[in-house]
Design goal:
single chain, alpha/beta, 2 domains, five-stranded mixed sheet, 12 helices, globular, binds pyridoxal-5'-phosphate
Length: 377
């Protein structure tokens, strides 16, 4: 927008604060407007509210700087993901995670059933499976770490293999966030986010985005947004940018809390397995260290108890909220298999835990109290 800043010279912590500001003018606004217009006077580059507005542009600039590409915001993460699938020819072939985010896998299963697309569902963290599935595929759709198994895909290797096979490579970067990895810099064509989560960070809006660094892809995705109409509201875009201002700080704190809690949970006799790439015992630790700049703030752990007790445990917490979603300032957990659409490869006793920015001792005490309230000893 208005500033004359060399963004590449700034660290993420500074980018999030400075990006997407209006031009400097005496008494000019520091923040972009909530641009409430369905239409504009004729003669300009936008023309109509479904094609763009100032509140979107400000948020798009901020995410573009964070991810190193050009951003298009959408009404939700799913809308952005759906726009990437619309790039495929009818009956095209896509490779995707068998146990990735259930919204995506459910949509893909449906498209597969209707023969709109053919989906090769595989275990993405298994690089050999990805390499075997590639020949003849049109799109490699990646998610790393996977949600909710928190397994790390070898992004540098599979992105490069996917490109060599002529696939369009898409990465859902929602869980890792741009503070931890930048898929476009690793060679992906498109990076998508549920902006609903860490980028906006306050569990008060739904929003998504697709980021690309190729003009023709940008134009195709923009056309899909323009004519399919899955557009963001200006207020949501404004709130998301307000959230982005503290994204780096929130993410740093959440990551520290997650590291500490994963370490403690791993030693707890009531827990059979902790999935968090920051633990040196995690099977994906070395892989994560090789290309990620952190380990994220999502933990999944398996509890040695009956499902009913685990549900009671999740319901008993006072500070941690028993709910779906992730990436907000508040800690949220849930037993993922309570959803019928969750992959059956996810154990029934697995709790997905989005670690927030609260005091870590308070969180630990809440976990202990919740175990006790559910009679898990
Ligand atoms: C990894 C991932 N991608 C995409 C989505 C979908 O985002 P939204 O709920 O904003 O549509 C989610 C939602 O939980 C998610 O966890």
């Amino acid at each position: 927008m208005g500033q004359n800043i060399n963004w590449k010279k700034l660290a993420t912590e500074s980018q999030v604060v400075a990006a997407g500001r209006p031009e400097k003018n005496p008494d000019g606004a520091l923040n972009p407007p909530i641009a409430l217009n369905s239409t504009f006077h004729e003669g300009g580059p936008i023309g109509y509210g479904r094609y763009g507005n100032e509140a979107w542009s400000a948020l798009e600039e901020a995410i573009s700087i964070l991810e190193g590409g050009q951003t298009l915001i959408f009404s939700s993460g799913m809308a952005a993901i759906s726009a990437t699938f619309s790039l495929l020819p009818p009956g095209g072939t896509i490779i995707a995670a068998e146990n990735g985010y259930q919204g995506t896998t459910t949509m893909l299963k449906k498209m597969n059933e209707l023969k709109q697309l053919y989906v090769r569902f595989i275990n993405l963290p298994d690089t050999e499976q990805v390499l075997k599935a590639l020949p003849g595929a049109d799109m490699l759709y990646l998610e790393s770490p996977t949600n909710p198994a928190i397994e790390v895909v070898d992004l540098p290797k599979v992105i490069s293999a996917g490109k060599k096979e002529g696939c369009l490579v898409v990465v859902d970067n929602t869980l890792a966030t741009p503070l931890v990895q930048n898929p476009l810099q690793l060679g992906a064509d498109i990076c998508v986010h549920s902006v609903t989560k860490y980028l906006s960070g306050h569990s008060d809006i739904l929003l998504g985005c697709a980021v690309v660094n190729n003009k023709s892809l940008y134009d195709r995705i923009e056309q899909s947004r323009r004519y399919e109409g899955a557009i963001a509201g200006p207020f949501e875009a404004w709130l998301a940018l307000r959230g982005v201002r503290t994204f780096a700080l929130r993410m740093q704190r959440s990551q520290e809390n997650a590291m500490e809690l994963a370490t403690r949970l791993e030693k707890d006799k009531r827990v059979s397995k902790v999935r968090f790439p920051g633990l040196s015992s995690d099977p994906y630790h070395e892989r994560a260290k090789s290309f990620m700049k952190g380990f994220g703030a999502m933990i999944s752990f398996e509890v040695k108890a009956e499902v009913s007790q685990i549900d009671k445990m999740c319901n008993s917490s006072k500070l941690i909220t028993n709910a779906t979603s992730l990436g907000g300032v508040e800690s949220i957990w849930e037993r993922r298999r309570r959803w019928a659409t969750e992959s059956h490869t996810i154990p029934k006793n697995l709790i997905r835990f989005s670690v927030g920015i609260e005091n870590v001792e308070d969180l630990w005490a809440d976990i202990q109290d919740s175990f006790s309230a559910a009679g898990i000893n």
